[in-house]
């Protein structure tokens, strides 16, 4: 396994800070200025990338109101797929100004394509990477086409079983993808944290010999921060200006201050992992003197016996280590020792 990949010059892997993707998705709510605003907030919060979704209602489904195309229950209850995606899609003519805005802000931008025509559009815009959404992980021809661009690829695995994940990874690698991150994901909107099974992140990395990360649809940051300890090197979260904005994805998205906290806290979690270490750290060195040690707590005259009444284990730590207590008690002082003296072997007969 490659232990790192690179998107737009930013290295991603266990030896680098977590890569944070702010998923804009449908949270533009039909207004390109709202999309620009989300991008600005993502940059301000410290996200590494903004991600779009490139499809239209015509490319992702068809205009049909038969039962199979109806949505029952959940956030989008009562709509047909065509109606949902007609309102949610990112107009293709927005892509160029959005890419230009990202360059102006200095934030990486790429997208999830949902068919070959989306890949063509994104190639024209020189997208630096591609994301395969969970619902498309079974679309092996799409994965093959994306792999043929030679760009880094991120694959989400929501709903996919082990065999389907293996097929997607094999297709990507066989078709030329050399830089791949596979994201553990639960495709619920929102997804309950207790169904996330984060231990799968480390298993994906080991089982499939890939870098692994997390696509997180929970409504806070606890799951994402925890995932860092299990090896996630990339986190993707939906981002909005207002969770109550009424858009298709707003209700399970992070608001700007929450995104800022995610960027900060995942980096802190990564830094805290460090390495296996039993040595004293720099932060501890100044405090060694406050550990316990053996002190004379009553004056002891030369020839007098050290007893529990005149020797105690107390702070600070300038005397003999407490492990010598039993060795000291019952022996005689070879000099006068004043109360408050750190006990030393040279005071003992």
TrEMBL record:
This is N-acetylneuraminate synthase. It comes from Vibrio caribbeanicus.
């Amino acid at each position: 396994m490659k232990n790192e990949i690179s998107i737009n010059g930013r290295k991603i892997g266990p030896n680098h800070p977590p890569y944070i993707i702010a998923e804009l998705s449908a949270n533009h709510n039909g207004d390109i200025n709202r999309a620009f605003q989300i991008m600005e907030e993502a940059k301000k919060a410290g996200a590494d990338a903004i991600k779009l979704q490139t499809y239209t209602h015509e490319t992702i489904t068809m205009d049909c109101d038969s039962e199979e195309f109806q949505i029952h229950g959940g956030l989008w209850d009562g709509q047909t797929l065509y109606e949902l995606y007609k309102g949610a899609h990112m107009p293709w003519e927005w892509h160029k100004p959005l890419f230009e805005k990202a360059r102006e802000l200095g934030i990486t931008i790429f997208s999830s394509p949902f068919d070959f025509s989306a890949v063509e559009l994104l190639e024209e815009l020189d997208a630096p990477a591609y994301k395969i959404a969970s619902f498309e992980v079974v679309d092996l021809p799409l994965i093959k086409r994306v792999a043929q661009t030679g760009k880094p690829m991120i694959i989400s695995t929501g709903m996919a079983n082990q065999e389907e994940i293996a097929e997607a990874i094999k297709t990507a690698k066989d078709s030329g993808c050399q830089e791949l991150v596979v994201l553990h994901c639960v495709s619920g909107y929102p997804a309950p944290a207790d169904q996330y099974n984060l231990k799968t992140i480390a298993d994906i990395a080991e089982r499939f010999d890939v870098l692994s990360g997390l696509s997180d649809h929970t409504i806070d940051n606890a799951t994402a921060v925890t995932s860092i300890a299990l090896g996630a090197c990339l986190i993707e979260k939906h981002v909005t200006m207002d969770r109550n904005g009424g858009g298709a994805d707003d209700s399970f998205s992070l608001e700007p201050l929450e995104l800022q906290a995610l960027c900060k806290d995942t980096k802190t979690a990564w830094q805290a992992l460090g390495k296996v270490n039993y040595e004293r750290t720099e932060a501890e060195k100044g405090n060694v003197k406050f550990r316990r040690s053996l002190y004379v707590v009553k004056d002891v005259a030369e020839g007098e016996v050290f007893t529990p009444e005149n020797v105690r284990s107390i702070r600070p730590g300038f005397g003999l280590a407490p492990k010598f207590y039993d060795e000291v008690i019952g022996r005689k002082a070879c000099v006068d020792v004043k109360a408050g003296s750190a006990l030393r072997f040279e005071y003992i007969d």
